[in-house]
């Protein structure tokens, strides 16, 4: 493969994820994006909640029951001359850890806001995460077919609460029952809204020119109001600026209704035009650029039993540089081992397909037989380690017990695999045979018991355990570490990857331990 074709492939890719508060419309907009990407022919096929079409595993049964999205998938589709990768993020706040890591694998984000509600709490948290890497943000104000809040007030709220400047690209005309369409400030074009066309791609009647008499005929008095309002908006808001967008300081704002499939294409036009192509990523030693010919990638997610027919685990890898070709040999850097990758998969609207080639910016799925962990780096030889893909110290703990004690092997195996995935964390105290499950969000506990039953055939129950928090332990000096191990033996445990962890019954206990052992690091996050 020549360098120029590599550069071309990289340049046409856009890899993004959607951030939003539950119920703002992420699932609906995902569906409409797939419609525009021609991955589905009619909207109404992706949302399994009602149709049941997506009941691919017991795991997803649970997702349906609870009405939340707990699986991450990757969807690739062409749009105009670009190739878009959309990474789905788990919707529930309990899975913030998974979501966090997914956001390390994208180059831009779409922020969906319910325009009747404005900036909500989960969006604030997710924006904090995108700030760590200054990820460019595109904004979609959703549900314009309902009565919404004042548009100017909504943009003010985004600016004040989320600390990002807003540049309206489109502007709404009316709202709720009287939603007429949007005016594009950059192209001076009105696109008219029609109800009842949410399931298909619409032609969208357009009128060029704010002063066009056609507009008065089409929307009557709304045209007069719109002219006044646009004057005001132009004076009071920011103009779009590409550099400010790329550095995460300014967001282009679109208005529409995901349900009515209106405005989603405008947003996609902006995303494909302005969002960055695959970006460089930092390693411990140097920064890797996407156009480097050597292949590099990192694993940001592991998921078990995605498809009951395959009964396996899949490691999701973001390609950072170069090109994957079927059958190529890669260095599994942490293990120092060469592996041949013959059967990587991609996920086109939920169905697995074999990939022959994939490029920087793409996500591929590797079959994992227990040797791949979150954060692992793969390369064509160079000993690199990508940084910034952390595990978080859990905040909730339970002792897990078997109903049938003979099944301890299956329980251990199940828990180890689930912890490898990052679905939950497992701690084994040094002083006894307890198995302690640690989670960041409470829902993870239910998920674990559910999956242990359906995938590993073990019935497990929880008991309270006297653990308030956990910290990973590191010390520069081996002697210091050994002394610490003796002194703190009763509070030490090994996590799923055999890392030494301090489990504290109270926060005060943790504080005292830290004061007593100043040479030991108590870490809240861990990178493999
Ligand atoms: P989420 O993934 O962000 O949680 O949101 P989701 O797309 O599931 O949307 C949440 C609810 O908001 C859904 O209604 C959905 O139909 C509705 N919705 C999404 N976009 C729009 C829009 O542009 N206008 C209006 N009016 N509603 C919108 P639901 O009744 O909770 O779910 P369902 O019964 O339709 O499945």
UniProtKB/TrEMBL annotation:
<keyword id="KW-0648">Protein biosynthesis</keyword>
<dbReference type="Pfam" id="PF22042">
    <property type="entry name" value="EF-G_D2"/>
</dbReference>
<protein>
    <recommendedName>
        <fullName>Peptide chain release factor 3</fullName>
    </recommendedName>
</protein>
<keyword id="KW-0342">GTP-binding</keyword>
<dbReference type="InterPro" id="IPR035647">
    <property type="entry name" value="EFG_III/V"/>
</dbReference>
<dbReference type="Pfam" id="PF16658">
    <property type="entry name" value="RF3_C"/>
</dbReference>
<feature type="domain" description="Tr-type G">
    <location>
        <begin position="11"/>
        <end position="279"/>
    </location>
</feature>
<feature type="binding site">
    <location>
        <begin position="20"/>
        <end position="27"/>
    </location>
    <ligand>
        <name>GTP</name>
    </ligand>
</feature>
<dbReference type="InterPro" id="IPR038467">
    <property type="entry name" value="RF3_dom_3_sf"/>
</dbReference>
<dbReference type="InterPro" id="IPR005225">
    <property type="entry name" value="Small_GTP-bd"/>
</dbReference>
<dbReference type="InterPro" id="IPR000795">
    <property type="entry name" value="T_Tr_GTP-bd_dom"/>
</dbReference>
<dbReference type="InterPro" id="IPR053905">
    <property type="entry name" value="EF-G-like_DII"/>
</dbReference>
<keyword id="KW-0547">Nucleotide-binding</keyword>
<feature type="binding site">
    <location>
        <begin position="142"/>
        <end position="145"/>
    </location>
    <ligand>
        <name>GTP</name>
    </ligand>
</feature>
<dbReference type="InterPro" id="IPR041732">
    <property type="entry name" value="RF3_GTP-bd"/>
</dbReference>
<dbReference type="Pfam" id="PF00009">
    <property type="entry name" value="GTP_EFTU"/>
</dbReference>
<comment type="similarity">
    <text>Belongs to the TRAFAC class translation factor GTPase superfamily. Classic translation factor GTPase family. PrfC subfamily.</text>
</comment>
<keyword id="KW-0963">Cytoplasm</keyword>
<dbReference type="InterPro" id="IPR032090">
    <property type="entry name" value="RF3_C"/>
</dbReference>
<dbReference type="InterPro" id="IPR004548">
    <property type="entry name" value="PrfC"/>
</dbReference>
<dbReference type="InterPro" id="IPR031157">
    <property type="entry name" value="G_TR_CS"/>
</dbReference>
<comment type="function">
    <text>Increases the formation of ribosomal termination complexes and stimulates activities of RF-1 and RF-2. It binds guanine nucleotides and has strong preference for UGA stop codons. It may interact directly with the ribosome. The stimulation of RF-1 and RF-2 is significantly reduced by GTP and GDP, but not by GMP.</text>
</comment>
<feature type="binding site">
    <location>
        <begin position="88"/>
        <end position="92"/>
    </location>
    <ligand>
        <name>GTP</name>
    </ligand>
</feature>
<dbReference type="InterPro" id="IPR027417">
    <property type="entry name" value="P-loop_NTPase"/>
</dbReference>
<dbReference type="InterPro" id="IPR009000">
    <property type="entry name" value="Transl_B-barrel_sf"/>
</dbReference>
């Amino acid at each position: 493969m020549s360098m120029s074709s590599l550069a071309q492939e990289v340049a046409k890719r856009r890899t993004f994820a959607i951030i939003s508060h539950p119920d703002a419309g992420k699932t609906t907009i995902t569906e409409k994006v797939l419609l525009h990407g021609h991955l589905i022919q009619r909207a109404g096929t992706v949302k399994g909640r009602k149709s049941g079409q997506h009941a691919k595993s017991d795991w997803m049964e649970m997702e349906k029951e609870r009405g939340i999205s707990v699986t991450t998938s990757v969807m690739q589709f062409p749009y105009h001359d670009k190739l878009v990768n959309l990474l789905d993020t788990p919707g529930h706040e309990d899975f913030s850890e998974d979501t966090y890591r997914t956001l390390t694998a994208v180059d831009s984000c779409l922020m969906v806001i319910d325009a009747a509600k404005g900036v909500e709490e989960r969006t604030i948290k997710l924006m904090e995460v995108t700030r760590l890497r200054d990820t460019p943000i595109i904004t979609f104000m959703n549900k314009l077919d309902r009565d919404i809040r004042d548009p100017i007030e909504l943009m003010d709220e985004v600016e004040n609460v989320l600390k990002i400047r807003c540049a309206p690209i489109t502007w709404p005309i009316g709202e709720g029952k009287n939603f007429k369409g949007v005016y594009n400030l950059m192209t001076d074009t009105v696109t008219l809204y029609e109800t009842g066309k949410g399931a298909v791609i619409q032609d969208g009647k357009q009128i060029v020119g704010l002063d066009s008499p056609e507009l008065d005929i089409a929307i009557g008095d709304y045209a007069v109001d719109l002219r006044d309002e646009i004057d005001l908006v132009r004076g009071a808001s920011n103009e779009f600026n590409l550099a400010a967008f790329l550095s995460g300081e300014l967001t282009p704002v679109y208005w529409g209704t995901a349900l009515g499939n209106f405005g989603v294409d405008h947003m996609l036009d902006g995303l494909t035009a302005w969002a960055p192509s695959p970006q460089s990523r930092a390693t411990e030693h140097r920064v890797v650029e996407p156009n480097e010919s050597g292949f590099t990638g990192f694993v940001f997610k592991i998921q078990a039993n995605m498809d009951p027919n395959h009964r396996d685990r899949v490691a999701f890898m973001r390609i950072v540089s170069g090109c994957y070709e079927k059958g190529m040999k890669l260095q599994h850097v942490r293990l120092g081992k060469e592996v041949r990758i013959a059967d990587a998969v991609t996920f086109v609207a939920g169905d697995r397909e074999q990939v022959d080639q994939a490029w920087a910016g793409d996500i591929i799925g590797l079959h994992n037989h227990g040797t791949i962990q979150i954060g692992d780096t793969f390369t064509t030889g160079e000993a690199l380690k990508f940084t910034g893909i952390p595990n978080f110290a859990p905040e909730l703990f339970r002792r897990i017990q078997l109903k049938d004690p003979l099944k301890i092997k299956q329980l251990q195996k199940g828990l180890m695999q689930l912890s490898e995935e990052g679905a939950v964390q497992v701690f084994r105290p040094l002083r006894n045979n307890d198995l302690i499950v640690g989670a960041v969000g409470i829902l993870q506990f239910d998920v674990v018991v559910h999956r242990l039953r359906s995938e590993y055939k073990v019935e497990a129950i929880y008991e309270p355990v006297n653990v308030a928090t956990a910290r990973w332990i590191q010390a520069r000096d081996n002697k210091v570490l050994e002394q610490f191990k003796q002194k703190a033996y009763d509070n030490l445990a090994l996590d799923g990857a055999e890392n030494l962890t301090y489990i504290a019954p109270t926060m005060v206990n943790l504080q005292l331990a830290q004061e007593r052992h100043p040479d030991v690091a108590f870490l809240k996050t861990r990178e493999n």
